Amino acid sequence: MRKRNNVHVIDAIRPDVPVLVYAHGFGCSQHMWRHITPAFEGKCHQVLFDYVGCGQSDLAAFDPVKYASLKGYVQDVLDVCDTLGIERGVNFVGHSVSASVGLLASIERPTLFDRLILVGPSPCYLNHAPDYFGGFERKDLDGLLDLMDQNFMGWSSYLAPIVAGAPQADSLGGELSESFCSTDPTMARIFAQATFFADSREDLPRVTRPSLILQHGKDALAPLSVGEYMHKKLRGSTLEVLDVTGHCAHMSHPHLVTAAMQRYLSLT
């Protein structure tokens, strides 16, 4: 599993030190956490990995049926922890769709997790009027996937600056576009479908572990109403709105994310 998911551990795992497991978002890899991990070196054991089909994972292990739903990515998280012999105490840090993956994993195995830190989460990207505003109409997401099918490079160039947000659309957008383009198009298409059409709203009340919701102030992919909705549905949750434009605060404003994590984990 270490090779399959390109698992890396910062500091050896011991029972007396908190464990942080980082899970990247769609089209990304563990490399996106590089601005966060230095703040926790010597204080926590940190586990980084790539979902199968992403980053430096073993692409030969990709199963299009398994990874067509979030369950496949949930299993990756559980497999990584099992491979490392981690049985409890995981502080899960998930960006974007990985927030939902972490929530679902905590439902499946609540004793494994301590707390969940959710960066830019969304349980459902689709609007369901009048009770839920996820940010997109069905035709918008269908169009995005059609563009992906027709012009993968063009799709990457279009989506990356939206995800990055102003004013870092050029610098961060370039890195994101490169990451999107480096992913196998077929695997990326399957992950995109699983991401954008997932609906985990009914699962939120089943989560028993406490969570920190780090909401971006201006996020084209997950509007403020989504963070407020999750805070209302997740028992024991804390909502913190970051003064950030875009969907990747851990990359664009890592100092804000590390500070929020340190406060939440009492590591200041």
Automatic annotation (TrEMBL):
InterPro entries: AB_hydrolase_1, AB_hydrolase_fold. Belongs to the AB hydrolase superfamily. The keyword Transmembrane does not apply. It comes from Acidovorax benzenivorans. Keywords: Hydrolase. It comes from the Bacteria. Residues 20-259 form the AB hydrolase-1 domain. One of its GO terms (molecular function) is hydrolase activity. This is Alpha/beta hydrolase.
